[in-house]
Design a protein that fits this description.
By secondary structure, the chain is an alpha+beta fold. It has a single domain, classed as Sortase, Chain: A (Beta Barrel). It contains four helices and ten strands. An eight-stranded mixed sheet has the order 2-1-5-6-9-8-4-3. It has a two-stranded antiparallel sheet with strand order 7-10. It starts with 8 loop residues before the first helix and ends in a 16-residue tail after the last strand.
Length: about 290
Amino acid sequence: MKNRLLKPVALLIAFAALFAAAACKSGGGASSAAPESVSSVSAEESASPRSVDLAPVVDEGLPAVAYEGPDGVLENLRLLYAYNPDTVGWLSITNSGGVSFIDYPVVQSYDNNFYLRRSFFGGYASGGTVFMHYRCDPVELSKNTVIFGHNLKDHTLFAQLLKYGSASFYNSAPVIEFSTLYEDYKFKIFAAFYTTIHFNYIRPDFARAEDFTAMIDEITARSVITTNVGVTAEDSIITLSTCAYVDGVEGARFVVMGRLLREGESEIGCFAADNPNALGITQKYARFGA
């Protein structure tokens, strides 16, 4: 997460107004179910990426909130936590040109429905809020940290993820940054795929190592890009899931997965190629939120 001093009250109010005007039609990938192989398609080109303005803004109409949370919380997340203790982190993806096209606080509730249509402050917002799977560990991180966000028709929230249907886009932004309340983490993206709610890719933990590697093998076969990022049974991963609009496919999802940077490993050197043999993918009809 970038080292910046946030006064996010006005920012988060802007979130609520923006998302209410640009809702995802279905569950927005924030469904707690997962998907199956789909006949899908490449993402339509969006307008230039829209990134939330994080310049400090003071809203004089709102009372100040003192931080009274746990010790050790990262300075840049303390004000967010003070306004909403459901805050579990900050998610960011920045391209080689320095544009952060994914740049949002992440919350977690008691189920995977609470923030589907709620703003960061808990009021109604049709675009919801980016949130972590309720079963994931937000501090130590689960084997698979799963984060959901809507695919909005104004190309905000997780709509930009659909660009990972192209290897050329991957090569400009192969790293996911996720800060928990206490630590900063980086993940190298290793797969991007279309599926439906019948393939269970949102499992936070695995009883056996072979269950994890079997899922990784399945995901690699489904991925519309082939990368040089390997994943073993010892690795942990992050999953970003959103709804996809694929003609004739109900409950379609688009998913981007990254592998946690290993100790001493460089984040540079990632590359990808398009995978024309991805399982069940025709890359013809997928589009941004309708």
